[in-house]
Amino acid sequence: GEDVEQSLFLSVREGDSSVINCTYTDSSSTYLYWYKQEPGAGLQLLTYIFSNMDMKQDQRLTVLLNKKDKHLSLRIADTQTGDSAIYFCAVDSGGYNKLIFGAGTRLAVHP
Amino acid sequence: NAGVMQNPRHLVRRRGQEARLRCSPMKGHSHVYWYRQLPEEGLKFMVYLQKENIIDESGMPKERFSAEFPKEGPSILRIQQVVRGDSAAYFCASSPTGPSENTEAFFGQGTRLTVV
Fold it and tell me: Is residue B102 scored above 80 in pLDDT?
């Protein structure tokens, strides 16, 4: 079945850029998503990219998609302490909002 | 417009009891999805429902779990005879449209079930 892999931890200094990586197996996924989860909270959709795009920028967020390698990344510029959270990569499967999630990358931002 | 409302936020059940988790989708949304998040893991799809219909239950355990989304009222995820392994966060999401149309699915804050 579909599989989505992420590294589990990332630690960055405040003000630096963060890059969170994700690989997936299903080449038929149409939309690829990044969600943010703060402790004890639900999921917040940060951004998504359509599979025929290779880059999308939204303020401090840049999503890069390498469809050939099935690799997705999320870059957060000027990382702040408020960005500390778990970031989930997700891809759609089945033509509707049946999302396959990675295990999440825990981002820690230190002074 | 209130977001997706889930209740209770926290639920403690003894082994063998029943757990009922409720999800009220956003106003105007007729598509509901349930996901389960085990500790330290990502979310796993369980079931997709439209009003009065189960569309895809491929992620639901075969026994003890059931879901409904009646014509009136919230969607219910029901877990009978709970076991310790059912302890998890259960998230509901809703969207206004479904297959072949990509729209954002909005997630609730989840119900954290603890089985003791």
Answer: no
Encode burial over A36-62: b for 16+ CB neighbours within 10 A, e otherwise: bbeeeebbeebbbbeeeeeeeeeeeeb
| Partner A contacted by B90 (CB < 8 A) | no
- How far is Cα B82 from Cα B42, in angstroms, rounded to an integer? 21
The C-alpha atoms of residue A86 and residue B9 are separated, in whole angstroms, by 20
Angle A109-B3-B5 (CA atoms, 0-180°, nearest 5)? Answer: 100
How would you write chain A as a 3-class SS string? Answer: CCCEEECCEEEEECCCCEEEEEEECCCCCCEEEEEEECCCCCEEEEEEEECCCCEEEECCEEEEEECCCCEEEEEECCCCHHHCEEEEEEEECCCCCCEEECCCEEEEEEC
pLDDT for A96 equals 67
The answer to whether the CB atoms of B98 and A96 lie below 8 A apart is yes
Contact A42 B100 (CB under 8 A): no
Joined together, the tokens standing for residue B20 give: 């009922």
Q: Given pLDDT bands bounded at 50, 70 and 90, which one contains residue B99?
A: low
